[in-house]
Write a structure and sequence with these properties.
Length: 221
């Protein structure tokens, strides 16, 4: 595991990422395997059958080879459908894309459920990253309020948020190669640095500062 430290002229902070990737479809699984190369990582999915097949080293979606999954399991990656198993994590990555939302308003979108899952388990000081979940405004206006409501916490007081859009295509090379780079941001300048460094360690690229929103500092890596 790689601890993260950010420094400035007048302060110092230390962050030891314990990663949980929420949602183990293709997007989530690739993220989880990548994070697992550098950090203690747990993948969470409410579908117990999905969890069991991944534990056996098989992807029924036929997107990720069994060899890659088995290698990750050997290195310590684990997956679960039990909320208690992810309660001690402190860096939650939600990877459910918004485009699968149903036209039926009675069907609850998995992204909202994922936000509530995180709200049930986060502790003070944790970071929630919305990766591949649509535009930053969706994260700010819809996702973060759901986490706040379920947890009773306030963003930037009790927990913090990050954001990263996903690339349109994944190109696997080992676990850590990301063909188009990653964009990251944080809800405070310090959190932006932490999220940035975690993603650089995982996806292995240099970074460039770029603003995304009025209240969010972004980086392209």
């Amino acid at each position: 595991m790689r601890p993260i430290s950010t420094t400035s002229e007048d302060d110092y902070s230390y962050f030891d990422p314990r990663v949980c990737v929420i949602g183990l479809g293709h997007t989530g699984l690739v993220h989880a395997l990548a994070f697992g190369e550098n950090y203690k990582t747990i993948g969470y999915d409410p579908d117990q059958e999905r969890v069991e097949e991944l534990r056996r080293g098989h992807d029924s979606l036929l997107k990720v080879s069994g060899e890659l999954i088995q290698h990750a399991l050997y290195k310590g990656f684990s997956c679960t459908s039990d909320l208690e198993d992810i309660r001690k994590c402190n860096f939650y990555v939600i990877t459910l894309p918004p485009e699968s939302v149903s036209d039926n308003p009675s069907e609850r979108h998995p992204l909202w459920s994922a936000c509530e899952v995180v709200g049930k388990v986060i502790s003070g000081g944790d970071i929630v990253v919305f990766d591949s979940c649509g535009c930053p405004s969706m994260s700010e206006k819809e996702c973060i309020p759901l986490v706040e409501k379920k947890s009773g916490f306030i963003c930037n007081r009790d927990f913090f948020a990050g954001y990263s859009p996903g690339p349109f295509e994944f190109h696997e090379k080992g676990f850590t190669f990301w063909n188009d780079g990653k964009i990251t941001s944080g809800s405070t300048p310090e959190i932006a640095k932490i999220v940035d460094e975690v993603y650089i360690n995982v996806f292995g690229a240099d970074s460039l500062v770029t603003p995304l929103k009025e209240t969010i500092l972004g980086r392209v890596i």
